[in-house]
């Protein structure tokens, strides 16, 4: 899991896209926060493509936020590309209590 954690952390710092399988679904996402909640490593992603059990809303939809358990991500890869988020990205998140890294919107 340390390798996956490091990849997600790197993606946050460099605003890279993450391609991974989660819950059996291929997903294309941009991570915004990584850390722990109740001792479990989680990350908050904005999913912009792929599929999900709940479906994907249109670009910029606030319904595309995903709280992901890092230990359940598979086939993780990073790729450069446009950064995706939603207008409500400044809303307080509840996915992570102890934040390690959070995306910066100032570079």
Ordered list of secondary-structure elements with their pairings:
Layout: H1 2-14, E1 17-22, E2 25-37, E3 40-50, E4 65-69, E5 74-79, E6 98-102
Antiparallel strand pairs: 1-2, 1-5, 2-3, 2-6, 3-4
Shape: globular
Q: Which structural class is indicated by helix and strand composition? A: mainly beta
Order of SSEs: HEEEEEE
- Outline the low-pLDDT stretches: none
Main features:
six-stranded antiparallel β-sheet; mainly beta; 12% helix; 107 residues; single chain; 43% strand
Report on this model:
The protein has 1 helix and 6 strands. 12% of the residues lie in helices and 43% in strands. The protein has one domain (2-102). By secondary structure, it is mainly β. It is globular, with a radius of gyration of 12 Å. Strands 1, 2, 3, 4, 5 and 6 form a 6-stranded antiparallel sheet that branches. The model has no long low-confidence stretch (mean pLDDT 91). A hairpin with a 2-residue loop joins strand 2 (25-37) and strand 3. The N and C termini lie far apart (29 Å).
């Amino acid at each position: 899991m340390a390798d996956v954690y490091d990849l997600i952390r790197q993606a946050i710092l460099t605003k890279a896209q993450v391609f991974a399988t989660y819950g059996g679904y291929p997903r294309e996402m941009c991570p915004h926060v990584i850390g722990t909640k109740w001792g479990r490593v989680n990350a908050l992603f904005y999913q912009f493509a792929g599929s999900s059990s709940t479906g994907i809303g249109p670009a910029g939809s606030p319904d595309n936020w995903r709280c992901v358990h890092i230990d359940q991500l598979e086939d993780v890869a990073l790729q450069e590309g446009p950064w995706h988020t939603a207008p409500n990205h400044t809303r307080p998140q509840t996915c992570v209590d102890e934040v390690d890294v959070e995306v910066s919107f100032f570079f």
